[in-house]
Amino acid sequence: CSLGLLAQRESGCKALTLNSVILHHISGGGAGVYQRRRRRSWVWNQFFVLEEYTGDEPLYIGKLHSDMDKGDGKVKYFLAGEGAMSIFTINEETGDIHAIKRLDREQQAYYTLRAQARDKISNMLVEPESQFIIKVQDINDNAPVFLDGPYSSQVDESSPVGTSVVTVVATDADDPTYGNSARVVYSILQGEPYFSVEPKTGVILTALPDLDREARDQYLLIILAKDMIGQMGGLSGTTSVTVMLTDINDNPPRFPLKVYQFTVPESALILSVVAKIKAVDLDLGRNAEMDYKILDGDELGTFGIITDPDTQEGLIILHTPLDFESRSSFSLHVEVSNRIVEPRFLLVGPFSDLTTVQLQVEDVDEPPVFTPSVSWMMVSEAAPVGTIVGSVSASDPDDSNSPVRYAIDKRSDMERHFSIDSSSGVIRTNKHLDRESRALHNITITATEKQAQSLAGSAVVLISVTDVNDNAPSFARKYHITVCENAQSPSQSPSPLITCRLTCLSTDNTASVLTRQTGLLRRDQLIHFLPVVISDGGHPSLSSTNTLTITMCSCDLHGGQQLCHWGAPHFQSILSAATVMICVLTLCNFGAADRSATQGIQTRILDHEQDIQENIVYYDDEGGGEEDTEAFDITALRHLNQTKLTSRLSNSGTERHRMIQEFIRDRLQVADQDLTAPPFDSLQTYNFEGVGSAAVSLSSLNSQDSGESEGSYSFLKEWGPRFRKLAELYSHNKRGQWLDLQEGDL
């Protein structure tokens, strides 16, 4: 048995053969079954149906038929697959296939379906299911379309014929494999004779050699695309193409005028624009950029010319001042040329042009002019009022040469140190001058025409005040010098010096202060005042007396200062013979500066004068004189950090002395090391005097010495001024009488 299909084609109906499997009926079990016997091959062809069918009835496609169908109505037919029962239907009884909707090949070119033949009663397949294709046949129902249109392109002006501008492409949705429905050709509807288009490729080309942008810079082309190879009945589509001609430098610059005339006032400022000229260039952008140049007519370089980058104008600039009286007119020859030149157009002619610029200088009223504009003069600070310092001169540069009037600008000489003769320009001193107050005067002199004072010229006069020796030298600042007690003297001098008077020996204006005697002690005198006479080397020589303040300090073994009582009382005394200092000064003219002192002398500058206060040491026990071995040694207290304290035990015992000794040492050490602590008053009380005093005991008990009688104390007068008061007291008191001496008496 076989399943056949009749297909409707253009020439009518044609029987088609499907693959089929013969199924045999097997009895048994009360149910009919089929047994696969064998399979034979059928020849199957695809169906064709025209798209876009617009009839009122369903479109007949073909007929499905099985050899098992005896025409007795026992077999029914079915369709499955793409579009089954929605686009395509089948008559179950006859197997006729129809299309019930209009087909569009551009949406779907073919459909795959499956055909079945079943027994009506058992619904079993009487033939194996077979697959077939319904292909939609194309008709020319789509016109060419320019998907990228409209187009825009550029091409250089004066391009050769055949230069490619742009390529246009049209797309046809019809079947390119069936007929000529999708075969497109191109033609130009608008744009001839300037442009043409290739029929098959759509390339637009230039058709004329002399397209000039300056004449016309834009073209609108209309391009046609037609299918069916352009034959009658073919569909077509169009697009527009805008072609812009780009500029090339094919036009030289040209001056509209051969002669330009301008008027310039002689008062025009340097670097100001005095004239503008402009050449015309029909090109655009960089092709129209121009350079201007002055060829001749300005030998001295009075003018220059530059190009305005925005307007391409030639700007004539003034480089040097104009003077109507010297030159009243200029005739400049100016050239303009392009910066960028197309070599192929040089054969046509030079890309430059020439013109003449005539400049007339206008006379204006000018202010007087000083010669020179800056003057330098000198005058002594000792010059009396009315002394002539110098003179200035100014003249009217105009032809009228009007007389000039002089004056000093008050803002430059607020204190009226100088005056000027309004007619002659002679400058005189108006006050006494002081070089130390002001060494240089910078004054401005003005000059105006006597008839018209609206315009004024000015000049600068620098007056230097020369020095005379009218100031005695003095110390540059206040000095406070410190020196360690017991400092070693670098030199010895048999005679004391009260002041130091030396002339200038060098140019560094410094001096050195040296001790002349060793063994200087703070307890003897804390502060020394050294008068210093300073002389300069002027004519006549001037001098002044200055005082140096020298403070004695307690120092360690290495010379480091430990205690300097800046607040000690001011003993108003000049250096005695025992405390003479050697002053070596090298000072010149205006003051002195300190130099590092030798042998432990240091210089210290005090920011503020401090209060001077005193330290009071009070002793409850005077001691037992030379035989008092239990007393405390005051020398050991003074040099606690240099000499180890040694004292003998008193009646209270060794332990009590040791505790007091440690207490005093700790307190002194704290006070000595704190150099920043203010010098407040302190009260120190000692219950015992000590032994081994360097000044020897002052007690009257058992103090006979070298055979002196008990009532004779005349030997005290030989001990010097320090014991003068003691000698006077003992000369009026009996031996053994209690003495109450104050510290100031010693």
Structure commentary:
- It comes from Oryzias latipes.
- One of its GO terms (biological process) is morphogenesis of an epithelium.
- Residues 66-146, 147-255, 256-370, 371-475, 505-571 form the Cadherin domain.
- Cadherins are calcium-dependent cell adhesion proteins.
- Pfam families: CADH_Y-type_LIR, Cadherin.
- The protein is mostly beta strands and 746 residues long.
- Among the domains are: 47-137, Cadherins (Immunoglobulin-like); 145-246, Cadherins (Immunoglobulin-like, Sandwich); 259-362, Immunoglobulin-like (Sandwich), CATH 2.60.40.60; 369-466, Cadherins (Immunoglobulin-like, Sandwich); 480-489 and 497-556, Sandwich (Immunoglobulin-like), CATH 2.60.40.
- Helices cover 4% and strands 37% of the residues.
- It is built from three helices and 45 strands.
- Strands 35, 36, 38, 39, 40 and 43 form a six-stranded mixed beta sheet that branches.
- The longest helix has 20 residues, at 654-673.
- It is elongated and about 190 Å long.
- Mean pLDDT is 75; it is low at 6-44, 491-506, 567-619, 626-632, 639-652, 700-710 and 734-746.
